Amino acid sequence: MTRRPRVTPDGDGRRRGRPAHPGTLAAVKILVVGTGAREHAITRALSLDPAVTELHAAPGNPGIGALATLHAVDQLDGRAVADLARELTADLVVVGPEAPLVAGVADAVRAAGIPVFGPSGEAARLEGSKAFAKEVMAAAGVPTAEPRVATTVEQAVAAIDELGAPHVVKEDGLAAGKGVVVTDDRQAAIEHARACLAKEGGAVVVEEYLDGPEVSLFVLSDGTDVVPLVPAQDFKRALDDDQGPNTGGMGAYTPLPWAPAGLVEEVLETVARPTVAEMARRGTPFVGVLYCGLALTSKGVRVVEFNARFGDPETQVVLARLRTPLAGVLLAAATGALGALPPLEWSDEAAVTVVVASQGYPAQPRTGDVIEGLGDADAVPHVHVLHAGTAVDDEGRVVSAGGRVLSVTATGADLAQAREAAYAGVARITLDGSQHRSDIALKAASV
Ligand code: AMP
Ligand code: GLY
Description:
Layout: E1 2-3, E2 28-34, H1 37-47, E3 52-59, E4 69-71, H2 78-87, E5 92-95, H3 98-102, H4 105-111, E6 116-117, H5 125-128, H6 130-140, E7 147-150, H7 153-163, E8 167-171, E9 180-183, H8 186-197, E10 204-207, E11 214-222, E12 226-228, E13 233-234, E14 237-239, E15 243-246, E16 251-254, H9 263-281, E17 287-297, E18 300-307, H10 314-321, H11 326-334, E19 350-357, E20 371-372, H12 374-378, E21 383-387, E22 390-392, E23 398-400, E24 404-412, H13 415-427, E25 430-431, H14 442-445
Helix pairs in contact: 1-10, 2-4, 6-9, 7-8
Bound molecules: adenosine monophosphate and glycine (GLY).
Residues 177, 234, 249, 307, 311-312, 314 line the site of glycine.
Pfam families: GARS_A (PF01071), GARS_C (PF02843), GARS_N (PF02844)
InterPro entries: ATP-grasp, ATP_grasp_subdomain_1, PreATP-grasp_dom_sf, PRibGlycinamid_synth_ATP-grasp, PRibGlycinamide_synth, PRibGlycinamide_synth_C-dom, PRibGlycinamide_synth_C_sf, PRibGlycinamide_synth_CS
Region (Disordered): 1-21
């Protein structure tokens, strides 16, 4: 299915007042791969870039469909994505989620001679295997929690007892943010290890507990050079006050008024540059965005995890503050030209996003419920609603189609104002049984 966009990039008045594009980029056609609010945020930012003349998404979602032409292509099928990109004569393909990256979709597009923002399947193992990420960090001298890799329950129990409480047990492979258990309960830690190891080829990483606040820093890489974006903070637990199970992320904000000065430079020096250099040395250069999930511990900055793509929901707030038009930035990363990119420009405003999730998320999300008030929420000043798990039903209604359904995003002069606007947006949305956290950016807004 190919659907025509309801709003062309040119028809979007929000572009006014944006700075001129640096360099000579013009008439760029872009294909975005993915279905979530992160991809909606990327597509929205690209739609505000005057250089972008055509936007396509595979397969996208109903929100993305308002900005881009949707193509019903399997996002895990590298050949199908590369064929579509060729057919569209795309100048750039942006792969959003981890699953297609780990499946080698970027390799297929790159093999077709089309610039792609996103690492090869080999390089995406930084996210696809926690054990591999630990190995790279050890080789590159990157500070992280001391790990033990276990492939049997006996090994896991020994590691759990050796490292002590609080216990941190992680499934080795991709688990959409839900494969990690952090607990004081030894039995619960062992049960999680047992469940992960029951899967074919299962392995778990048991590691030292890291104290201190978490920061997400996205670092663009063209394989050699790196460019940091602004730090953000994610809320991983399902419930207020960081209670409940881990999720993909329930909200985010930027900037971080409490973060120490020099944090970004320190992460570049101790984490991003050594990792990118190590990947290049191995002959598997990392091209795309290295998501550095960090803990600011009493002993210094430690890597909690790497991801091989933009974070969701942090991207929603980071891109809301980016003033430099996005297409040229992503194209520079995809084509080895980050070194020549002028410094990125950022808005001084704050941004907050609140995830509206379906009933039962993360364990058993209920889908198919009608969503109302989307237009009302979008109409709140400084608010834009990004679609995550949504679909259009037979009667043309927008319904929930996943665990995280919407990411209601707002900007404001400071975090308090951005928060207020985001929650005003959330209040206008009706979705039976839905849940959201009420404390996104609450503490930071009162710093
Ligand atoms: P991950 O998928 O590795 O990011 O883990 C998900 C979440 O679990 C992280 O964002 C942290 O909140 C928590 N976590 C992971 N590893 C550790 C650790 N070593 N110490 C404390 N908390 C952790
Ligand atoms: N926000 C966490 C993630 O994208 O993995």
